[in-house]
Amino acid sequence: MELGLSAEEWQAVRLSLDVACRSVLVSLAPAIGVAMLLARGRFPGRALLDALVHLPLVVPPVVVGWALLMLFGLRGPIGGPLHDWFGIRLVFTTDGAALATAVMSFPLIVRAVRLGLEGVDPGLEAAARTLGAGRLDRFVTVTLPLMSPGILAGAVTAFAAGLGEFGAVITFASNIPGETQTLPLAIYSATQMPGGEAMAARLAGISFALAVLGLLAAEFLARRMALLLGRG
Predict the structure, then answer these.
(1) Cα 159 to Cα 109: distance, rounded to the nearest angstrom
(2) Confidence (pTM)
(3) Per residue in 206-230, pLDDT tens?
C-alpha cells in the first residue's frame, strides 16, 4: 500500500487520470473549431447549435450516457458498423468511459475557448491581413496565441471535471474494476459494501484534492498566459 491505498484503489486513481486525459485529447480540437464557429460564424441555426453544444451541462448525465448507449452500442447506428467493420467496441470499455467523459466536458472547453476568442482584438487580425498574412497565417501567428489562455483554462477545467464524471460513465461504460471503474465509481462501490466507509473516505479525499489542484492549475495557467501576452 502507498498512502494507505490498496492496489485496487490506486488502479481507480490511475484509470481516472487516464480517462480524463483521453477525454481532453479527444474533445480539444473539435471544441476549438466549434468555439470559433459560434464566436465568429453568422449562419442560420447558430442559436440551435449553441444550445446543443451546451446541452450536456443541463440534462442529467444519465441521459447523455443513455444516448451514447443508443448510438454507440453494438446494435447502434454508429457502434454497430464500428464493431462489424473495424472491430471497435466502445461500450463497457475504457475508451467508452473516455468518450462519455469527453461529451460531458466538451461544453466547458467550448465556453472557455469562446470567451478567450471573443477577447481577441479584431484590429490585430486586420493589421496582419493588411500586411499580407493569409487566413491560416493570421490564425497561427495572431489568433491562436491570443486565445491560448482560454484553451489552456478550458482543457484543465475539463480535465478536472472529467475526474468526477459519474452518471454518463456508469450508464455507457458500466462499473468494471480495472476497465471502467474510475474514482467516482469506486467511491460508489465502496459505499455499497459493508465496512467500505473508510475506503470511500480515502478515495473522496483524493478526488477532492485532484479537483482543487485542477481548478488552481486552470486559474494559474490562464493568468500566466495573460501576463505573457501582455494582457494581465
Answers:
(1) 10
(2) 0.88
(3) 988 888 887 787 778 777 776 766 6
